[in-house]
Structures are given as structure tokens and as C-alpha cells.
Amino acid sequence: MSAHTYITVAVISYLLGSIPFGYILVRLFMKQDIRATGSGNIGATNVARSGAKGLAISTLALDALKGSAAVLLSVEIVQNGFGYSKELQAFAALCVILGHCFPVWLRFKGGKGVATSLGAFSILMPKALLVALVIFILVVAATRYVSFGSVLAAVGMPIASYFFGMRDGALVLLSVACLVIILKHSQNIKRLLAGNENKFGAAKA
Prior knowledge:
71% of the residues lie in helices and 0% in strands. The protein has ten helices and no strands. The longest helix is centred in the first third of the chain and has 26 residues, at 53-78. The model has no long low-confidence stretch (mean pLDDT 89).
């Protein structure tokens, strides 16, 4: 595949990912800047902390949808004549997650990529995603730490993908995407290690 193909996928996926739905919805319906609430994150978990559960659910759905759309639409647009490419899909997934985490519209300060990866990975590796979701649900149910569940799910996703047959460049790209998610949780990890990470439902993260 040509460099032009990858550049096109990168641009489409990044721009889709960079749409800050959490920020837009809270600004539109609550006349507030979600970045001034709780952890300051633009994702669904922090939107829920603002007290607007309906907006949080909408943010989660829209962030996941843009992840799925990037993998489906960008690859469909440029892949005619090239055949099926799991590596190109993984590249789209990485780029849409980067767009969410580092949106150009918010000076590259975005979310942590969990909901967006949920949508992207549901198309890329649905069976492995189910494993990651089980890890997330069990950890959050046991500890009420959303960040801990997210990090462990991100660790488990490439491992599960390998066991479900993903190899080579596609696995590397998926692993990098999961690493981005883990790195975006670096402050949460520090607080978890220090024993002062707030549990889900608290005012701050």
C-alpha cells in the first residue's frame, strides 16, 4: 500500500478522533467547560462527575462511535482495490485514539482514549475486546477504580489479540494504541500507587 493511503487514513481518523464530544455537549447543554470539573478530562467518566448522566452516556456513545467510524469509513474510502488489510485498520484505530487524546481543537489536551478505543477495537478485534471488557468490568466492580480497570484492560487487549490470531504490524499498531491509553493514565497510576486515587462516584479523579 502506498504512503498516500496511510496518510489519508491518518488524516481522516485523527480528525474524527479529535471531535471533543464531551466538551461540546457540556458546553452546549450546561454552559460549562468540562475541563473545569473533576479531573478536567473531556471523557464520559468526568462528564458523569458533573452530574449530567445523560450527557455522560451520550459522550460515551459518541466517542465510541467515532472510533468505529474511523476504522470503517477511512479504510473503506481508501482501500478499494487493495483488499482487506488488518494492519490498515489497526493504523486507523491508532490514529483515531491519538486524535481523541490529543485533539488539535483543544490544544492537544484531550481524553484518555478508552471509549474511542472501545469503538475502534469492536471493529478491529471484537473477540479480544470482549476479553478486555471482562477484565475492565471485574476490576471496576471489585475496586471501583475506573482508571485501574482501564489500564488493565489496555494491557490485556494486545495479549488477547495475539491469542485470537493478530500478528505482525497490526499487533504492533494495536499495542502502541493501548500504550497511549496507559500513558494517558499516568497520573491515575501515580495516585493508585500512592493510595489516594478517588473511586468512581467521588467528586474528583
